[in-house]
Amino acid sequence: MSDYKDLNVWKISIDFVENIYKIANNFPKEEVFGLSSQLKKAVISIPSNIAEGANRNTNKEFVQFLYIALGSASEVETQLIIAKRLNFVNVIDDELENIMKIRKMLNALIRAMKNLKK
Fold first, then answer.
1. How far, CA to CA in Å, does 100 sit from each of 9, 26, 81, 89, 113?
2. What predicted TM-score, i.e. pTM, was given to this entire model?
């Protein structure tokens, strides 16, 4: 695997982390150790698992980490929906669109890696 920093899904995920941090930092102060913290951990997990998996020994291991990143994307989506329902954020349409884009890219990368022999 080439450098994970060359992967578009990693680059988009890094940008997504920045956006989510800006949103979470505006949550009520009492949520610093609650939903805000959970959301930040989940969003960081997306590019982190892509990076960790890319540096594993086999494609099978890489795919496993991509699945973890995919799960983290779903976790972020759920937490954003909760934040919206709790009125911590007004609009999440762009973020949900970004999650869908990241998910599609992760699924495409998973398919590609499964088709490689290693």
1. 12, 23, 14, 19, 20
2. 0.94
